[in-house]
Design brief:
The complex is a heterodimer of chains A (226) and B (309). The two termini of chain A are 30 Å apart. In chain A, the strands form two sheets. A five-stranded parallel sheet of chain A has the order 1-2-3-7-6, with helices on both faces. Chain A has a two-stranded antiparallel sheet with strand order 4-5. Chain A has seven helices and seven strands. Chain A has one domain: Thiamin diphosphate (ThDP)-binding fold, Pyr/PP domains (Rossmann fold), CATH 3.40.50. Chain A has 226 residues and is α/β, with parallel strands linked by helices. By secondary structure, chain B is of the alpha/beta class. Chain B folds into two domains: 156 residues, Thiamin diphosphate (ThDP)-binding fold, Pyr/PP domains (Rossmann fold, 3-Layer(aba) Sandwich), CATH 3.40.50.970; 125 residues, 3-Layer(aba) Sandwich (Rossmann fold). Helix content of chain B is 41%, strand content 20%. In chain B, the strands form two sheets. In chain B, strands 2-1-3-4-6-5-10 form a seven-stranded mixed sheet, sandwiched between helices. In chain B, strands 7-9-8-11-12 form a five-stranded mixed sheet, with helices on both faces. The radius of gyration of chain B is 18 Å and the shape is globular. Classes of the chains: A alpha/beta (226), B alpha/beta (309). At the A-B interface, helix 2 and helix 3 of A face helix 4 and helix 6 of B.
Chain lengths: 226, 309
């Protein structure tokens, strides 16, 4: 992405909006890695006075393009930003990441319709398709399938990938950039808690913090150092 | 004196000028551009007009995206679908992020008329003023609507502008000066004060004339800005006139009356009457018939003033 931690508001930048705002810790980790703020600040997550709010806040943390958390809104705001870039002749692309449960929100489909209507080929949405949401499996709570055919019917270019395979991810973004005249959806098949034995494919870990022992085990299973 | 016009008509006039004077302005609608008058902007600057279709949540979320890309966005639909249906989008994506979006909501209140209760937003002021930092304005006539819209366009940040469908008698000259957050003493008086907003300012002026014939000298304040509320003018009126009647085309719960009562009760307790729609839904009818049936006429205001004296 064309972004600069030293100049988070630069005019021609690409934008990323975390429509599934509850995944904020992952975005914060990526931002710290990219140099938006010191890694030590990650430990202030969700604490009183922290810039790292429970859900992303653009007014508190430079580099956050949009405050999200209320599902369905991020993708619709991304549509507005993509329209603005077209209007101003800016090359910046707009990326947004949605949850699979999130697409149960009606607003997602209002936004999907508008993105195709306005031919927003500068917009790329990614659905994190792990099949789970707070109350359990998507198909038990409210079936969302077929996701690919729904977006195709709404006029989107749809690319399905293994969301844990980095070459596939990179290739999908290249294909999205090359697609003209319509927005792209990258449908990324994933496993919640991938790579951590006791978390993988378990809805119970949707929004829960691990204890110290569990955190240690998780980091070690992922190949990190505790 | 200016001509009789609906405040939405003034909005159309304002947008027609804005299309030329501000190239950074974007106007959006949700399939009601002929009614909200955003068509006036579209006619001049179609490349900066965006229709969301019948999708008000998306209208205001997209508006936030455009605003955070440097645009000043005027996004319109009926008050019911703006303040009502899209409330949480306006709260989270516009107000919380201080997006430069002007929610210009037309067809507010009972005077939508024949469309009936489903389209009569009588809760919008309460909803909008409860949002932190939201500017809420409700002009009384065409001239003040123009002036307030210009002021709203110049400020940076979110605002809710309440506009009506029905034509109203002019109160002000075309060149009226209006400042956001500063009420206007439309008529001086010392015996009681009617604080009115929107189309009820006209009824309040009529009531003051009627009461003058009975020997009561009533002050009329046009509270065109519900938030930030002009506390000073309220306290002064309470201290100098000793009795306050509020008037709004809105439920008596949470709107102008509540806002004024919050100030009066905490600063200068005097007797008050809150004139508005009681805890009920409206119905189909002509605007004038509805105002009469739901207790929103000059006669109702006279009765309220007399009940305090």
């Amino acid at each position: 992405m064309n972004i600069d931690p030293a100049d988070p508001q630069k005019a021609d930048r690409d934008k990323f909006i975390l429509s599934k705002g509850h995944a904020a810790p992952v975005q914060y980790a990526a931002m710290a890695e990219r140099g938006f703020f010191p890694k030590e600040e990650l430990l202030s997550l969700r604490k009183l006075g922290s810039r790292l709010q429970g859900h992303p806040s653009m007014k508190m943390l430079p580099g956050i393009e949009m405050s999200t958390g209320s599902l369905g809104q991020g993708v619709a705001v991304a549509v507005g930003m993509a329209i603005a870039n077209k209007l101003d002749g800016k090359d910046g692309r707009v990326y947004t990441l949605l949850g699979d449960g999130e697409i149960q929100e009606g607003l997602v489909w209002e936004a999907a319709m508008a993105a195709a209507h306005y031919k927003l080929d500068n917009l790329c949405a990614i659905v994190d398709w792990n099949g789970l949401q707070i109350d359990g499996k998507n198909e038990d709570v409210m079936n969302v399938k077929p996701i690919d055919e729904k977006f195709k019917a709404f006029g989107w270019n749809v690319i399905e990938i293994d969301g844990h395979n980095m070459p596939e991810i990179v290739e999908a973004f290249d294909r999205a950039r090359a697609c003209k005249g319509r927005p792209t959806l990258i449908l990324a098949k994933t496993h919640k808690g991938y790579g951590v034995s006791f978390m993988e494919d378990n809805a119970g870990w949707h929004g829960k913090a691990p204890g110290d022992d569990q955190a240690k085990q998780a980091v070690e299973e992922l190949g990190g150092e505790w | 004196m200016a001509e009789k016009m609906a405040t939405r008509q003034a909005y159309g006039k304002f947008l027609k000028e804005l299309a030329v004077t501000n190239k950074n302005a974007v106007v959006m609608d949700a399939d009601l551009s002929g009614s909200t008058m955003t068509k006036e902007f579209k006619a001049v600057a179609p490349e900066r007009f965006f229709n969301a279709g019948i999708a008000e949540q998306n209208l205001y979320a997209m508006a936030a995206g455009l605003a955070h890309s440097g645009k000043v966005v005027f996004a319109s639909t009926f008050a019911m679908f703006a303040a009502g249906r899209a409330f949480e989008i306006i709260r989270n994506s516009i107000a919380y992020t201080k997006a430069n979006v002007k929610v210009c909501a037309t067809h507010a209140g009972l005077t939508v008329g024949e469309d009936g209760a489903s389209h009569q937003a009588i809760e919008d002021l309460a909803l909008m003023r409860s949002i932190p930092g939201m500017v809420v304005v409700n002009p009384a006539d065409g001239a003040s609507a123009m002036a307030l819209l210009k002021a709203v366009a110049e400020m940076n940040g979110p605002a809710y502008v309440r506009l009506g469908r029905a034509a109203v008698e002019p109160i002000y000259e075309d060149d009226v000066q209006v400042e956001i957050g500063k009420g206007i003493v439309a008529k001086e008086g010392k015996d009681a004060t009617i604080i009115a907003t929107g189309i009820m300012v006209g009824e309040a002026m009529k009531a003051a004339d009627m009461l003058a014939k009975e020997g009561l000298d009533v002050r009329v304040i046009d509270m065109h800005t519900i938030k930030p509320l002009d506390e000073e003018i309220i306290i002064k009126a309470a201290e100098e006139t000793g009795a306050i009647v509020t008037a709004e085309e809105h439920t008596v719960i949470g709107g102008l009356g509540s806002a004024v009562a919050e100030v009066v009760a905490q600063n200068c307790p005097v007797k008050m009457k809150i004139v508005g729609v009681q805890d009920t839904f409206g119905e189909s009818g002509k605007p004038g018939e509805l105002l009469a049936k739901y207790g929103l006429t000059a006669e109702d205001l006279c009765a309220a003033v007399k009940a305090l004296k």
